[in-house]
Design a protein that fits this description.
2 copies of one chain form a homodimer. Chain A has 345 residues and is of the alpha/beta class. The first copy, chain A, has 12 helices and 12 strands. Chain A folds into 3 domains: 65 residues, 434 Repressor (Amino-terminal Domain), CATH 1.10.260.40; 128 residues, 3-Layer(aba) Sandwich (Rossmann fold), CATH 3.40.50; 139 residues, Rossmann fold (3-Layer(aba) Sandwich). In chain A, the strands form 2 sheets. In chain A, strands 2-1-3-4-5-11 form a 6-stranded parallel sheet, sandwiched between helices. In chain A, strands 7-6-8-9-10-12 form a 6-stranded mixed sheet, sandwiched between helices. In chain A, helix 11 links the parallel strand 8 and strand 9. Chain A is elongated, with a radius of gyration of 26 Å. At the A-B interface, helix 4, helix 5, strand 2, helix 6 and helix 11 of A face helix 4, helix 5, strand 2, helix 6 and helix 11 of B. The structure holds a DNA duplex (16 and 16 nucleotides).
DNA sequence: CTGAAAGCGCTAACAG
DNA sequence: CTGTTAGCGCTTTCAG
């Protein structure tokens, strides 16, 4: 057994490829060759190196490798607080896809200046690329220094003015489907609980819904459009309380997010108003919770897994061939009918 | 305006401290001094460097800095899939605490070999430390090479055989409180929905509950102890369906996790059995969802924020003074009474 | 106070 | 096939 190298204070020094080389009786570069595996090494020496690697429990110093290769093996994912249950699902999906590609995921919080942090990380080369899950028009100036060849991808939300690859759901048609669903079942007084327009997802869902209704000569009464200050359970609840206390209360409400819809259902519950007996409630996202007995929410499902998978893939493509063209992809969405909005015959 | 350096293929080269030095008319080491700020620099030259820094939009290369300083500015957090809503809340809290400390968070998925990945990252020096949120006895061998001075901290779950700092909740007394709550309100037939014992949280909650009942001469009938194969809505639901179909069904159930409890409530709902009229249901964690109208879950609250804050602090302490002693801290928990288990007088 | 110079550990030419 | 060598960009002595 060799003597471990030690600092003056007695700490064990980390094992370097030099230590491995010494132990295997080869040069340091041969160790490197075995590690990277792209250059031919005689099988017997390879075995010797492999053995030394194992015995010393060696792991290459990532910082040193990064300096040479320019690759860190990590990507930043900028996402909102995880209080909206759609985001954990999306983050999980991104993590899984990244893991498959051998990449580490650094999470940055959009509400805590995460986008600026990600921009800094990219310039500092501490990540190979960035996935923006919650970009807004506000983001545009932050990324103005980058062109389509930059390793940046948007998922979930879209920002048309940005030149990067973008993967989102087809929110317009998903919401239009909700509108037609209401009309087909003769819902007369229709309401909308929406959110700030800064998120493209919200804007598209709102437009898709309202336009489809207007196209059918059934425009929504402007008094029935509630714009929540944020996407949260409490905001959905408050908006619904307001709607339900009107003299002529609506008979169907579309909420641009499941979280708002769940707050809305809870508001109805508080007032002893039956969902769907007295009022239908529909959400958007199809989070896990939407399928559980407490809510049984009719909603539009978004392909979060697919979005994540494609986002990571687009990022990897960009790293390999920066000049390939970028595009905005819209994945199909689908109405999922459950108890919160359905007819019984 | 200076010429940007370019690669042969025409890409803009990243700005280095050399570029900044040249522009400011000083040596590269002076730029470094200004950057690190620990060495005195004449104010006028400092200003000149600062200006150049700004103009070139410089960001120091993290890999190069890491090589010199040994610090990466990132920590790994190993956590389970985010499908149990307690974990996003915990991760959010950790992220926030880490951000405050100027650290990036790399998320690793315990179910996808995240612990091994974290161990590798630590040896590769791609992270400064590791927070294990979902460690089990299984983890022990992975970390056997490390002693108390290693930058590793456990939060949420505890593994006694590990020598690291550990921050958890007082699950035993929280669960005992549930037991006494049941007894005080005369609940006779008491059941438990628990989970695999590999998680210390589960083991402690289970023991705390059962021991408190036994101490009061009200031991739980072994037929009323359901051990779910995993912590999920579906497992909670199935366990509850079984309990409710017994001839003498229980009048109170404690679930070792809110997610199980929510599944249990949904099972009761399916069978038209009233909660809390026919049966009380209590969970553990106090996730956000527990307070919403669809479940109104009585549960034991855990200080996730505090756990995260302390975990990050413990890690930072370890980095600064590796020899300080480690300990297992148990933060207080608290019964939160809501509709799923309460009496009306 | 400032510049010159030595490496951190690795990869990738370049010579044998 | 293998060893020698030159840096990657930064921090930190060491000399002025």
């Amino acid at each position: 057994m060799e003597q471990k190298r030690r600092t003056p204070s007695g700490d064990a020094m980390p094992v370097t490829s030099h230590d491995v080389a010494q132990r295997a009786g080869v040069s340091q570069s041969t160790v490197s060759r075995v590690l990277t595996g792209d250059s031919a090494v005689r099988e017997t020496t390879r075995q010797r190196v492999l053995a030394a690697l194992e015995e010393l429990n060696y792991a290459p110093n990532v910082a040193a490798r990064t300096m040479k290769t320019g690759r860190t093996g990590a990507i930043a994912v900028v996402i909102s607080r995880l209080t909206n249950p759609f985001y954990p699902e999306l983050l999980d999906a991104v993590s899984e896809a990244a893991l498959e590609a051998g990449l580490h995921v650094i999470v940055m919080n959009a509400e805590m200046d995460g986008e600026a942090d990600a921009a800094r990380a990219l310039r500092a080369r501490s990540v190979d690329g960035v996935i923006l899950a919650t970009a807004t028009e506000e983001s545009a100036k932050l990324w103005s220094g980058y062109d389509r060849s930059a390793p940046i991808v948007l998922i979930n939300r879209v920002v048309e003015s940005l030149p990067f690859a973008q993967i989102t759901g087809d929110h317009v048609s998903g919401s239009a489907e909700v509108a037609r669903f209401f009309l087909k079942h003769g819902r007369q007084r229709i309401a909308l609980i929406t959110a700030p327009l800064s998120a493209s997802t919200t804007a598209e869902r709102e437009a898709g819904f309202l336009d489809a209704l207007a196209a059918d000569k059934a425009p929504v009464n402007s008094g029935n459009i509630m714009r929540a200050a944020a996407v949260s359970h409490e905001e959905g609840r408050q908006a619904m309380l307001f709607l339900l206390r009107q003299p002529q209360r609506p008979t169907a409400v579309f909420c641009v997010s499941d979280l708002l819809a769940i707050g809305a259902i809870d508001a109805a519950r508080e007032l002893n108003i039956s969902v769907p007996g007295d009022i239908w409630v529909v959400g958007f996202d199809n989070v896990q919770l939407a399928s559980w007995g407490g809510y049984q929410l009719t909603t539009v499902s978004q392909p979060a897994k697919e979005m994540a998978r494609r986002g990571v893939k687009a990022l990897l493509d960009r790293l390999d061939k920066p000049r390939a063209r970028t595009e905005i992809v819209r994945l199909p969405t689908q109405l999922v009918i459950r108890e919160s909005a359905r007819s019984w015959f």
